[in-house]
Amino acid sequence: MVKNKLSIIMTTYNVASYVVSTLDSLVAQTNKNFELIVVDDCSTDSTLDIIASYEDKYDWISSFPHTNNSGVSAARNTGLQHISGNLVTFIDGDDWLEPGYVDFFLTVFVDTDVDLATCGFFMDTENGKSKVKTDKRQNGLVDRDEAIKQITKISGPIMGYTWNKVYRRSVIEDNSIHFQTDLDLMEDQVFNVEYATVAKKFYLDTLPLYHYVSRKDSITRKFAMENVRDVGVANLRVYKTIRDSRLDKDNREQIE
């Protein structure tokens, strides 16, 4: 049996005030069978220096900084080009993980042999307050329709984020799935729906293991006309992906 290894892709941009907590939470993982791929998108603060200091100390960290600011989707796509694990997830450079995050996912993939697994998460504020997204734990295998339903919900313990999900590298590569670089918002949800329409087995769990830190200067909290456009385009792509997937399924069933 092939031993699972988790590749964690972390994107950073001017997160010098937060990234130490992120890196320390990775150092503290109880299961060490992972690698960290860092893609910095041209930070102008000391983020790169901090990353370099950790990379010098830990051989499981590799960094591939961009030479041009290209956005988070391009950074994640760069990360996908450098992973060596058969499983992959994505984290943000201003968030942090519970110590059992890696072990939880590696165990789930051994026990269930799924293509996608999720965990729950905490919503943290900059002043350190933390609130779990849901107090009631729910977990189990679900079909594709239920997985997509939970991914596309505008609220809930799963939603369309990538950082509370782990994917099979083979599914991503075999289906040429990537992050769409013309979107600054909801690129996660588009990626997840494209993945879910070709994945076969899903395990959803709301056990909170990821800390999402809500910052005042985060792009998701800034309102702009460009953001309105991104939401509309992303929703259209999600709808089209689901529609096309169901049409393909119907056509296959008719042939059979």
TrEMBL record:
Segments forming a coiled coil: none
Keywords: Glycosyltransferase, Transferase
Any one GO molecular-function label of the UniProt entry: glycosyltransferase activity
Domain (Glycosyltransferase 2-like) ranges: 7-173
Domain of life, source organism: Bacteria
Name this polypeptide is given: Glycosyltransferase-like protein
Native organism: Companilactobacillus nodensis DSM 19682 = JCM 14932 = NBRC 107160
